[in-house]
Amino acid sequence: ETLNTSYQLSSVPLQIFFYVTGIYYVFYFSATLAMIVYKSQVFSYPDDFLAHDLALLFLMAILEALRLYLGVHGNLTEEEAPLGLSLVITVGSVILSVYFLVWQTYVLRADVIVNSLLLVLYGLEVLLKVTAIAAFVS
C-alpha cells in the first residue's frame, strides 16, 4: 500500500505580496508620472532630463510587469527558475527605485515617501522569494 501525499510548496504570503505590490505599483507609477508632469510645469526641467526620467519610469513599468509575471508563475508552478529570474529583475527595480528616490532631476517629499514604501515592499518580497526558492529546491 503506497501512501500518496503531495505537499504544497508555493507560498501563500508571497502570492499575496505579489498582488499587493502589483496594486501598489499601479499607484506608484501614476503618482510618479503625475509628479514628473508637475515638476516639468513648476520647475525648469531640461527636456533631455525630462525624457530620461520618463524613459526610466516606463522601463521600470515593463520590468515590474515581467517581474510580477515571472514571480507569480514561478510560485504557483513551484519552479525556482522563474522565481529566481524574478528575484534578479527585482534588483533592477530596486536600482530604478533608488534612482527616483535619490538621483532624479528633482526629488520631492512625495517621491521620498512613495519610493521608500516601494523599497520596503521589495525588501519583504525578496525575503519571501528566497524562502520559497529554498523550499522548492529542498
Automatic annotation (TrEMBL):
Gene Ontology cellular component terms for the protein in this record: ciliary transition zone; membrane
Coiled-coil blocks: none
Localization terms from the record: Cell projection, Cilium; Membrane
Xref: Pfam families: Transmemb_17 (PF09799)
UniProt KW Transmembrane keyword: yes
Keywords (A to Z) from UniProt: Cell projection, Membrane, Transmembrane, Transmembrane helix
GO biological process, one term: non-motile cilium assembly
Topology in membrane: Multi-pass membrane protein
Membrane-spanning segments: 16-38, 50-70, 82-102, 114-137
Taxonomy, superkingdom: Eukaryota
Protein name: TMM80 protein
Organism: Podargus strigoides (Tawny frogmouth)
Lineage summary: Eukaryota, Metazoa, Chordata, Craniata, Vertebrata
